[in-house]
Amino acid sequence: MIWIFCLLLALVFSLVNIIFLKKPRTAGNVIEIILLYLFVFQIGLMSFIAFIAHVFRGPEIAALVGWQPGSPFQYEVGMMNLGLAVLGFLCIWFRKEFWLATAIIAAVTMAGCGVGHVREIIVNNNWAPGNAGLGIWLQTVLVPITLLVLVYFYRRSVLKTF
């Protein structure tokens, strides 16, 4: 479960950064740190791993999801994941509106994937581990909601907007 590894990295790096924080530990500063590492690891690294998986191990990933291997969708999904990875990594240098835009595209993409997985279960009775596992639900529901909520509070407390 790579998503757990990426989430743990985000949490460990956040915790270490918060412990050694030289600025005051305000809610805004803590949220900013947590968001940064969620963007870098949960969006950046996780999406980069998905890019590699879909582009270079397409048939294996298709089988894991319960789909037919050999479809060009694998490459397209991989490229979309590469785009998300780039956005996640760029969050290191760009903040403010960039974080909002990154959270929105990540949330829309992940939620859309979640709807696709539910559709596969309902229409095709697809209970393959890569389509209906716990990680899929957490990645397509919990992560987007968490990002959007944290971005909201970050903007309210640090940027004084929203």
Q: In words, what does this structure look like?
A:
This protein is an all-alpha fold. 81% of the residues lie in helices and 0% in strands. The longest helix is centred in the N-terminal third of the chain and has 30 residues, at 27-56. The model has no long low-confidence stretch (mean pLDDT 92).
Radius of gyration using CA atoms only: 17 Å
**Count of folded domains:** 1
The number of distinct helices, counting runs of at least 4 residues, comes to 7
Hey, roughly how much beta strand do the residues contain? under 5%
Largest sheet: none
Low-confidence stretches: none
The whole-number mean of residue pLDDT values reads 92
Query: Structural class of the secondary structure composition?
Result: mainly alpha
Termini separation (Å)? 35 Å
Q: Output the helix-strand order.
A: HHHHHHH
Count of beta strands: 0
Q: How helix-rich are the residues, as a percent range?
A: over 70%
Tertiary shape: elongated
